[in-house]
Amino acid sequence: MFRDQTVVALITARGGSKGIPRKNLVELIGKPLISYSITAALGSACVDRTFVSSDDQEILTVSRQCGAEVIERPSELARDDSTSDSVIKHALEYLAEQKVGVDYLVLLQPTSPQRNAEDIDAAFTLLNSSKRYNLISVFEPEHHPLKAYLLNDDGCLHGIVSDRSSFRRRQDLPRAYMPNGAIYIFTAKAFRQNNGIPLEYAIPYVMSIRRSVDVDTPQDLEIIRSLMESTP
Description:
By secondary structure, the chain is an alpha/beta fold. The chain is built from six helices and eleven strands.
């Protein structure tokens, strides 16, 4: 399916961050955080070219040193309220200007350092066998989300599906997954048609909870450091 298709990995890494200052460059077992995603993309047999989109010159420099190509992102697309869709759109427009063909895009968030090249290749193999065109990496949470309640405008609790769901056995509820932000795969054509990441009919690439920890806070960073140091 992908032999005659051009696959581009896009790693989005803005300079600003609140939870961890300079998060994408923070040291993790002797390497900057962003380097793990770059290494994963470069090591994938399915990825043809790897780009990092950033507004930060130091991130761009480190990314080049790690072997990635770079896309300089305008500052207005690096604010706290900037969306992934707007960043991807800018990247696709830049690649089109540079005459870089893109059939499939692999979005890799640098805050998922435990995702590796084998995961990317396994995700593409799964996507190929499914005959679908978009994939999201997920994990199965310990607590089933359908057991949760929402607080409605009337001040009362209401079950997401029904008020009795929280009393049902987990095995009697449908399988539920949470996205972990590690891998998104979709076609450039579908992105343009949807004016955003296509999410309908996406298939799941399931990862363990252990490998789905996302770096957002200093505590997350310490958890991942501990997990990675304990992995043979």
